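Sequence only, no structure available. Ideas?
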Amino acid sequence: MIKNFALALQRTITRHKIVVTSVVAAVLTLTLVLWASAAGLFGASEAEEGALASRTSGLPVSTATRDQPTPSGPAAGPQTPPAPALVAPQPGGRAVTVTDGGELADALADARPGDVITMKDGVYTAKGSSVTIGKQNAAAKFRIGVSGTAEKPIILQGSRQAIIDGKPGGDGTGGDYGLHVFKANHWTISGIRITNQKKGLVLDGSSHNVLDGVMVDTIGQEAVHFRSGSSYNTIMNSFVTKTGYSSPGYGEAIYIGSDGGNWEKLYMGSGSDQSDQSDHNQVLNNTITEFTGEGLDIKEASSFNLVKGNYFDGGTLGTDPEEPGAPLKPQNSADSWVDVKGDNNTITENSGVNVPPLDKNSAAFQTHVHGPDGYNSATNNIFTNNKVLSGSEGYLFWIDPKGKGNVLSCSNVAQSGGPGKGFSNLGGCKETGN
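Reply:
I predicted one. Tokens follow.
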């Protein structure tokens, strides 16, 4: 813009036969350009205006539907969600900075409501410790066992270079959980990376916690698990990838609840109903790739969970990381991005690519009736505004006909063209439930 104004000014001088030396002309041009710029006579270019709005708005760009990032070619993938900015404590809270595994373990054990624990960049590992969950032993490198409050949550934060590593230099074969949240409420875990663990980030009997912008990758089994009645938790804006390295059949990216066969041994209560009712959790705006089990598995008795705005890439479904190049096959029946065995869950505005043809029932989204009677398995779930972008060789939906009342809105979109099997095994959409 300034260059164009200067050229126009020079043409005007020539047109009116104003005789000046080249030096004087240059000085005159520069002076007038600077004066016009200061006076606001130049408009910003569209690019400049967009950059200015981005810098000054102070508001994040909405990712409500997460049709972005759409791959632009066969090798393209989604952008990794960034780690959130670091925050300072609320009044009365302590700022605690840690630099190694020992300091981190001490800080977690000593945490108080309102504290902010900041992990400096580096690799964090520890011998770890064990607790008993029902009848099962759970060993973890690091454990959170104290609670914040609704008014003063405790924050654990760091960049993606603050890494809880179960086996530095390893390949997902660490033997413990990376970070275990055990009977602890009102925490925010933000930005850090957890890698090379048997299980990544596990919540047992823990509620009202937020996992924001974390990265969990290169995991032997499942990456993130809300279990043993863990409810009202949120995982959002996070990157979960490379699961099932040692046990492909248990390589779920995100897992809510427990299989009915495990309820008794995981039960920590005292009543007669031992079901794992991990309810009212939210899975929002995450990027979920390279999983060998489902991208998200919601188990029987888990209800009223919200799954919204996530991006899935099912390209590694049916693979075994220890047998590269082996024929594809369902790993422990996993052949979908999302498998819902619970009831009254809402799955909306999710999108993704790649549904391999692992089974006649392979689909982006599935329901299955499973587990003990009496828990309304695979009933009254709602699916709206979900989309397969490309690479589907299965259905958009496979719905277990034994489960009733599942809404398949006409707002869901199967990929156009290609070898996919179409909308669902039930035919068209079901606005009032199957």
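The two ends are 60 Å apart (CA to CA).
Hope that gets you unstuck.
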